[in-house]
């Protein structure tokens, strides 16, 4: 949490955070005031049926994301992002000034057109909003930054929606609403002007506005990296779920026996849950980009979504006021489920945003994010079509609709885990290392950010590889004895993790050495345990000559690492054979520590053994 609060004290983040939060807040004040006023307006005042007007409003707001997102991505890659944010916020002032006049005269057609302009402004703001984060924050801060952005966004949506309700019931709602949206737009301009410069990622880019061609090209950028594409699809699936739940809250509240204030209460639970989940995700991941958190979020969404179906009462009591609604014991689990769906939604979404931003090419990052916005819009439209089809045409109940969303979410989670094994692998690693041990990391910044590197470490237990894989921010290629590699059940995990098997047989040794050389030459990280076996007495044995052979073929930096606190665990040889004795402790403290990289010319077996011994003994 301290890292998050530190970001909120720094100019490189705070003005940006305030700007994006004010934008989300103002959008929702305007949209919801307009929808509520239309709902209570007489038929003679409106240019069309109220239901048609409300649906047209939703469509007009989302249409610009299809028309302009790709072009907005090009703009954000070509020009300074802070400059674009300021220009977009000035556009918001122009739109809200027009809205204030239209609200005063109750010109509904103009207000509808301005909603399209607001969608356009949001479409241009979106790529800059998320492309600026990885440019101003380090990888270690990116998850914290995204957690704060998602927290600020959903709390702003909540507060904007609640304020819209108060304004809409004011005797002079049109005047108050116009003044409010203009005032908040001006505040957004002030905060945007405090954002430090964010230089262009690709200043030589040639701009052109060809919607269809640009959209196709932008979507191609997203497809260049499979993991990035799956992160985008995961984000879009979150918005599909979120839109599906939020759209049905009014009718679901009525089903529970509540009134209009009950709708606001459900929205509050859901939004606060997402905010808490986003911050919790940052804490659980240790402020790092951790794809293993994503399946945890998905499982939580599935579990509490399923429980929501069974918790929904068949014959609820009709409640006269909000207090009676909130304190009804029959609805306690419904409220808990909705809160926890929000919490696990926040846990689900933050790593995906961070992963997308980190993996996207710097010169095309904003266009990748623009592709994400297009996919988001498509999935939200699909959620509306599904809702209309199932609830209006087929006429299933809202509780059954929520159950179907839960089943779909489970299927999506399974599909993504199979398609992109990194999510499943990191989840498995994260669960093991965070339930059996209390793991701390020290000085892992010594592991190079890019390029080939050889990691060496003492070998204490059968959990060493999982602990090291969970600690390192880069994927690790482990070298493992072939007999272990071929173990039933675990073989799939090792093969998917790209473990390099080795044995004492000459042919296998040559094949392993060739694969290690290819991995290092391709810029990958390889880790070996130079002792060649688990320690028998807790001490570090002599290093074998395999490390020297590797460095002769591929002279790369060598990073010494050490595991502290594992000797004596159930998976070590302390007190007998590993895993064939009664466990004596649980959730023990383990530290993974790294030392400065050593040049290959200096990295002899004897020297590196001394470095690992020093690291293991060096306890703060």
Automatic annotation (TrEMBL):
Q: Where are the transmembrane segments?
A: 53-76, 88-105, 145-169, 175-195, 262-281, 293-310, 330-353, 374-396, 402-428
Ranges for the Phospholipid/glycerol acyltransferase domain? 453-566
Alphabetic keyword roster:
Cell membrane, Membrane, Transmembrane, Transmembrane helix, Transport
Q: Where in the cell is it found?
A: Cell membrane
Q: Which Pfam families match?
A: Acyltransferase (PF01553), MFS_1 (PF07690)
Topology of this chain in the membrane:
Multi-pass membrane protein
Q: Which InterPro entries match?
A: MFS, MFS_trans_sf, Plipid/glycerol_acylTrfase
- PANTHER family from the entry? MACROLIDE-EFFLUX PROTEIN, MAJOR FACILITATOR SUPERFAMILY (MFS) PROFILE DOMAIN-CONTAINING PROTEIN
Task: Return the protein name.
Answer: MFS transporter
- Species classification: Bacteria, Pseudomonadati, Pseudomonadota, Gammaproteobacteria, Vibrionales
């Amino acid at each position: 949490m301290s890292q998050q609060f530190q970001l909120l004290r720094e100019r490189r983040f705070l003005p940006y955070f305030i700007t994006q939060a004010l934008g989300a807040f103002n959008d929702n004040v305007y949209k919801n005031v307009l929808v509520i006023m239309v709902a209570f307006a007489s038929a003679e005042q409106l240019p069309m049926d109220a239901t048609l007007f409300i649906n047209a409003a939703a469509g007009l707001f989302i249409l610009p994301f299809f028309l302009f997102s790709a072009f907005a991505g090009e703009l954000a890659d070509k020009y300074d992002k802070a400059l674009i944010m300021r220009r977009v916020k000035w556009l918001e002032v122009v739109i809200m000034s027009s809205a204030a006049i239209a609200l005063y005269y109750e010109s509904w057609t103009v207000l509808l057109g301005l909603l399209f302009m607001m969608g356009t402004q949001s479409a241009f703001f979106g790529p800059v909003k998320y492309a600026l984060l990885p440019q101003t924050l380090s990888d270690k801060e990116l998850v914290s930054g995204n957690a704060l952005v998602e927290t600020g966004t959903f709390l702003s949506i909540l507060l904007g929606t609640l304020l819209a309700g108060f304004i809409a019931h004011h005797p002079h709602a049109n005047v108050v609403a116009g003044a409010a949206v203009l005032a908040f737009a001006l505040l957004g301009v002030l905060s945007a002007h405090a954002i430090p410069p964010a230089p262009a990622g690709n200043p030589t880019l040639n701009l052109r506005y060809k919607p269809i061609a640009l959209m196709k090209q932008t979507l191609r950028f997203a497809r260049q990296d499979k993991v990035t594409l799956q992160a985008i699809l995961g984000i879009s699936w979150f918005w599909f779920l979120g839109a599906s739940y939020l759209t049905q809250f009014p009718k679901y509240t009525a089903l529970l026996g509540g009134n209009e204030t009950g709708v606001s209460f459900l929205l509050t639970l859901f939004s606060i849950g997402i905010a808490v989940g986003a911050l919790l995700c940052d804490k659980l991941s240790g402020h790092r980009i951790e794809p293993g958190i994503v399946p945890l979020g998905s499982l939580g969404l599935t579990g509490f979504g399923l429980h929501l179906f069974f918790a929904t009462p068949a014959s609820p009591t009709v409640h006269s006021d909000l207090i009676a609604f909130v304190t009804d014991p029959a609805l306690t689990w419904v409220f808990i489920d909705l809160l926890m769906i929000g919490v696990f939604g926040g846990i689900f979404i933050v790593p995906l945003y961070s992963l997308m931003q980190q993996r996207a090419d710097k010169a095309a990052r904003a266009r990748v994010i623009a592709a994400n916005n297009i996919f988001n819009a498509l999935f939200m439209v699909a959620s509306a079509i599904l809702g209309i089809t199932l609830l209006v045409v087929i006429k299933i109940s809202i509780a059954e609709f929520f159950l179907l969303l839960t089943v779909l979410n489970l299927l999506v989670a399974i599909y993504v885990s199979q398609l992109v094994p990194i999510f499943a692998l990191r989840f498995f690693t994260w669960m093991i290392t965070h339930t059996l041990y209390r793991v701390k990391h020290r000085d892992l910044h010594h592991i190079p950010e890019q390029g080939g590197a050889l990691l060496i470490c003492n070998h204490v237990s059968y959990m060493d590889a999982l602990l090291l894989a969970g600690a390192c921010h880069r994927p690790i290629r482990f070298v493992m004895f072939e007999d272990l590699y071929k173990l039933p059940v675990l073989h799939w995990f090792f093969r998917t993790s790209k473990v390099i098997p080795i044995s004492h047989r000459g042919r296998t040794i040559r094949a392993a050495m060739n694969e290690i050389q290819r991995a290092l030459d391709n810029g990958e990280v390889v880790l070996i345990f130079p002792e060649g076996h688990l320690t028998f007495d807790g001490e570090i044995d002599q290093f074998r000559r395999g490390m020297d052979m590797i460095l002769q073929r591929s002279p790369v930096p060598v990073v010494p690492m050490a595991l502290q606190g594992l000797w004596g665990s159930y998976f070590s040889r302390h007190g007998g054979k590993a895993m064939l004795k009664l466990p004596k402790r649980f959730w023990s403290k383990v530290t993974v520590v790294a030392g400065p990289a050593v040049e290959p010319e200096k990295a002899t077996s004897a020297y590196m053994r001394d470095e690992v011994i020093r690291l293991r003994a060096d306890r703060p």
